[in-house]
Design brief:
With about 150 residues, the chain is of the alpha/beta class. It has a single domain, classed as Rossmann fold (3-Layer(aba) Sandwich). The chain is built from 4 helices and 6 strands. Strands 1, 2, 3, 4, 5 and 6 form a 6-stranded parallel beta sheet that branches. Pfam families: Flavodoxin_1. Keywords: Electron transport, Flavoprotein, FMN, Transport. Low-potential electron donor to a number of redox enzymes. Belongs to the flavodoxin family.
């Protein structure tokens, strides 16, 4: 089966949790999954995977988290042609730019040559039942694209 690599940034644990939900579903579907915190890997590590997923939160009023900025900038220089990508994230609807980092990563993946495997999933704070269903559907769609 495919190797899926999930790279996440999480301050409160909410984004790590949604990364784990997707990881568990992909494993249930028979794929190998590696989940890494963004400061421990390089964007080029996605070259070794079949499926590339970023899970990020949005900080404050629409900012990328400081710890994932280098990964984000390096991603544009990676050739992921033939790979499937997806983006998930958490945010807070209190802010004007809810989950803006998810949108920014989706655009950045567009520069890599990778194919979008599923629509992004945005979670308000912590994942609830409906969010878990959406995240599992996200994983199923990405797996089906592979």
């Amino acid at each position: 089966m495919a190797l899926a690599k999930i790279v996440y940034a999480s301050m409160t644990g909410n984004t790590e949790e949604i990364a784990d939900i997707v990881s568990n579903k992909l494993e249930e579907l028979g794929h190998d999954v590696e989940v890494d915190e963004c400061t421990t890997v390089d964007a080029a590590d996605f070259e070794d995977a079949d499926i590339a997923i970023v899970a990020t939160y949005t900080y404050g009023d629409g900012d990328l988290p400081d710890e994932i900025v280098d990964f984000y900038e390096d991603l544009q220089d990676v050739d992921l042609s033939g790979k499937i990508f997806g983006v998930i994230g958490s945010g807070d609807t209190f802010y004007d730019y809810f989950c803006k980092s998810v949108d920014e990563f989706e655009e950045q993946f567009g520069l890599t040559g990778a194919t979008k495997g599923a629509d992004s999933v945005k979670v308000d704070l912590a994942a609830e039942d409906e969010d878990i269903e959406n995240l599992e559907r996200f994983a199923e769609e990405i797996a089906a694209k592979f």
